[in-house]
C2H2-type domain-containing protein
Amino acid sequence: MDSKIPPANTQRLLLGEAILSATDVRVRRTLLKICGKNREAHLIACSELLTDPAPSASSASGTGQKRKRFEVCMKCKKEYNVEQNNDEACAWHHGQLLFINDDHDIWIDYDDRVYGPMDSKENQEMWPTAFLWGCCDKRADAKGCIISAHMPRPSKKACNRATSPILVE
Ligand SMILES: [Zn+2]
Ligand SMILES: [Zn+2]
Protein backbone atom coordinates (compact mmCIF):
# COMPACT_ATOMS: atom_id res chain seq x y z
CA MET A 1 0.00 0.00 0.00
CA ASP A 2 2.61 2.48 1.11
CA SER A 3 4.70 1.80 -1.98
CA LYS A 4 1.96 3.39 -4.13
CA ILE A 5 2.55 6.81 -2.56
CA PRO A 6 4.98 8.68 -4.80
CA PRO A 7 8.16 9.64 -2.94
CA ALA A 8 7.58 13.32 -3.79
CA ASN A 9 4.25 13.22 -1.99
CA THR A 10 5.77 11.49 1.03
CA GLN A 11 8.46 14.10 1.15
CA ARG A 12 5.89 16.91 0.89
CA LEU A 13 4.02 15.46 3.89
CA LEU A 14 7.23 15.12 5.84
CA LEU A 15 8.20 18.69 5.00
CA GLY A 16 4.77 19.87 6.17
CA GLU A 17 5.34 18.11 9.49
CA ALA A 18 8.84 19.52 9.77
CA ILE A 19 7.56 23.08 9.16
CA LEU A 20 4.79 22.68 11.73
CA SER A 21 7.10 21.29 14.40
CA ALA A 22 10.07 23.61 13.77
CA THR A 23 10.75 26.51 16.13
CA ASP A 24 9.77 30.05 15.08
CA VAL A 25 13.41 30.99 14.68
CA ARG A 26 14.11 28.01 12.43
CA VAL A 27 11.13 28.83 10.18
CA ARG A 28 12.10 32.52 9.99
CA ARG A 29 15.67 31.69 9.02
CA THR A 30 14.48 29.24 6.38
CA LEU A 31 12.03 31.79 4.94
CA LEU A 32 14.72 34.49 4.81
CA LYS A 33 17.03 32.07 3.02
CA ILE A 34 14.35 31.11 0.46
CA CYS A 35 13.48 34.77 -0.19
CA GLY A 36 17.15 35.60 -0.65
CA LYS A 37 17.61 32.88 -3.28
CA ASN A 38 14.34 32.87 -5.18
CA ARG A 39 12.80 35.96 -6.79
CA GLU A 40 9.30 34.47 -6.97
CA ALA A 41 9.37 33.48 -3.30
CA HIS A 42 10.56 37.01 -2.51
CA LEU A 43 7.55 38.48 -4.36
CA ILE A 44 5.08 36.13 -2.65
CA ALA A 45 6.49 37.05 0.76
CA CYS A 46 6.25 40.75 -0.15
CA SER A 47 2.60 40.47 -1.13
CA GLU A 48 1.77 38.46 2.01
CA LEU A 49 3.70 40.54 4.52
CA LEU A 50 3.86 44.07 3.07
CA THR A 51 1.17 46.54 2.11
CA ASP A 52 0.83 50.00 0.61
CA PRO A 53 1.93 52.99 2.67
CA ALA A 54 -0.60 54.60 5.00
CA PRO A 55 -2.42 57.44 3.14
CA SER A 56 -1.18 60.10 5.56
CA ALA A 57 2.35 58.71 5.91
CA SER A 58 3.04 58.72 2.16
CA SER A 59 2.39 62.43 1.84
CA ALA A 60 4.22 63.26 5.08
CA SER A 61 7.40 61.31 4.44
CA GLY A 62 7.23 61.51 0.67
CA THR A 63 8.93 58.12 0.31
CA GLY A 64 5.78 56.20 -0.63
CA GLN A 65 7.44 53.06 0.69
CA LYS A 66 5.55 49.91 1.51
CA ARG A 67 5.03 49.05 5.17
CA LYS A 68 4.54 45.87 7.17
CA ARG A 69 1.04 44.44 6.77
CA PHE A 70 1.02 42.91 10.26
CA GLU A 71 2.10 44.51 13.51
CA VAL A 72 1.81 43.43 17.13
CA CYS A 73 -0.18 45.88 19.23
CA MET A 74 1.53 47.40 22.27
CA LYS A 75 -1.81 47.68 24.04
CA CYS A 76 -3.63 44.36 23.54
CA LYS A 77 -0.46 42.37 22.58
CA LYS A 78 -2.27 40.83 19.61
CA GLU A 79 -1.23 40.72 15.98
CA TYR A 80 -3.36 42.93 13.70
CA ASN A 81 -3.61 43.82 10.03
CA VAL A 82 -2.67 47.50 9.62
CA GLU A 83 -5.20 47.81 6.78
CA GLN A 84 -8.01 46.95 9.17
CA ASN A 85 -6.94 49.18 12.02
CA ASN A 86 -9.36 51.90 13.15
CA ASP A 87 -10.28 53.90 16.26
CA GLU A 88 -12.35 51.03 17.66
CA ALA A 89 -10.23 48.06 16.61
CA CYS A 90 -8.48 47.53 19.96
CA ALA A 91 -9.78 46.85 23.46
CA TRP A 92 -7.23 46.91 26.27
CA HIS A 93 -6.74 47.50 29.97
CA HIS A 94 -4.66 50.46 31.10
CA GLY A 95 -4.06 48.95 34.54
CA GLN A 96 -2.28 45.81 35.71
CA LEU A 97 -3.56 42.51 37.04
CA LEU A 98 -3.42 43.46 40.67
CA PHE A 99 -6.32 42.31 42.72
CA ILE A 100 -7.12 38.82 43.89
CA ASN A 101 -10.39 37.51 42.53
CA ASP A 102 -11.85 36.06 45.75
CA ASP A 103 -14.48 34.11 43.82
CA HIS A 104 -11.88 31.93 42.14
CA ASP A 105 -11.64 28.29 43.32
CA ILE A 106 -7.86 28.32 43.28
CA TRP A 107 -7.72 30.41 46.45
CA ILE A 108 -9.92 28.11 48.58
CA ASP A 109 -7.08 25.85 49.71
CA TYR A 110 -4.22 28.11 48.76
CA ASP A 111 -1.36 28.02 51.26
CA ASP A 112 1.21 30.72 50.56
CA ARG A 113 3.76 28.98 52.81
CA VAL A 114 3.72 26.13 50.28
CA TYR A 115 2.95 27.86 46.97
CA GLY A 116 4.48 31.27 47.58
CA PRO A 117 2.79 34.68 47.49
CA MET A 118 -0.66 34.79 45.87
CA ASP A 119 0.00 37.71 43.55
CA SER A 120 3.11 36.30 41.87
CA LYS A 121 3.77 36.57 38.14
CA GLU A 122 3.68 32.78 37.86
CA ASN A 123 0.20 32.63 39.39
CA GLN A 124 -1.00 35.40 37.10
CA GLU A 125 0.24 33.49 34.08
CA MET A 126 -1.12 30.15 35.26
CA TRP A 127 -4.52 31.32 36.53
CA PRO A 128 -5.21 34.72 34.97
CA THR A 129 -8.90 34.56 35.89
CA ALA A 130 -7.93 34.38 39.57
CA PHE A 131 -6.96 38.06 39.28
CA LEU A 132 -8.77 41.29 38.54
CA TRP A 133 -7.61 44.27 36.52
CA GLY A 134 -6.55 47.28 38.58
CA CYS A 135 -8.23 49.67 36.12
CA CYS A 136 -11.77 48.30 36.08
CA ASP A 137 -11.98 45.50 38.69
CA LYS A 138 -12.93 43.06 35.95
CA ARG A 139 -11.69 39.50 35.52
CA ALA A 140 -8.47 39.00 33.55
CA ASP A 141 -10.35 37.51 30.60
CA ALA A 142 -12.84 40.43 30.38
CA LYS A 143 -12.78 42.59 27.28
CA GLY A 144 -10.57 45.66 27.59
CA CYS A 145 -12.11 48.71 29.28
CA ILE A 146 -10.44 51.15 26.86
CA ILE A 147 -11.31 51.20 23.15
CA SER A 148 -8.79 52.70 20.73
CA ALA A 149 -6.85 51.97 17.57
CA HIS A 150 -4.16 49.28 17.77
CA MET A 151 -0.76 50.79 18.39
CA PRO A 152 2.33 49.18 16.80
CA ARG A 153 5.39 48.43 18.88
CA PRO A 154 8.17 50.91 18.04
CA SER A 155 10.26 49.23 15.39
CA LYS A 156 13.84 48.27 16.25
CA LYS A 157 14.89 49.63 12.87
CA ALA A 158 13.77 53.12 13.88
CA CYS A 159 16.20 53.02 16.81
CA ASN A 160 19.12 51.73 14.80
CA ARG A 161 18.72 52.37 11.10
CA ALA A 162 22.41 51.92 10.32
CA THR A 163 22.52 48.20 10.99
CA SER A 164 20.80 45.59 8.90
CA PRO A 165 19.64 42.32 10.45
CA ILE A 166 22.37 39.74 10.76
CA LEU A 167 21.50 36.10 10.37
CA VAL A 168 23.62 33.85 12.51
CA GLU A 169 23.75 30.25 11.37
ZN1 LIG B 1 -9.65 47.54 32.63
ZN1 LIG C 1 -4.54 46.34 20.16
User: Anything to note?
Assistant: Residues 159-169 have pLDDT under 50 and may be disordered. The longest helix spans residues 7-21. Strands lie at 50-51, 67-68, 70-72, 79-81, 90-92, 97-100, 131-133, 146-148.
